[in-house]
Amino acid sequence: MQKTDHIWPKVITVDKRIVETLSVSTYQNFPKALREIIINGYDANASSVKVNIDEKNEKIEVVDNGIGMDEDDFEFYLRIAARTRKKSDQNKGDRKVIGKFGVGFLAVFPFCLQYEIESTKQGSEEILYASIPTEQ
Known about the structure:
Blueprint: H1 17-26, H2 30-43, E1 49-54, E2 59-64, H3 71-77, E3 115-119, E4 128-132
Antiparallel strand pairs: 1-2, 3-4
């Protein structure tokens, strides 16, 4: 046997139950979960965050005018618990960043069937989009 056959781990996977554990145990009700999504706008230096409720189509949309994300930021945002932010971290508007654990966007997962996010970095025309089937 070659030495490389004994190297472990070859692949690490994460069961989807960890998402449920992180979101359900952290956010017991929808208003607190929605607050986490609004905080993301604040952390992006938004001066306006609007919550649009479409009862007929059972859809809630949170729109902010923050600085947006480029591809690296977007990938980081979608990485669960990527890193812990330092208390000294500030956004470009010199506000202290509230989010720190990288799990805030999971907050609404127990309350929705589909989570969609779209972002455009200020000064860019590139639109980044992700659709996550949270019911799965």
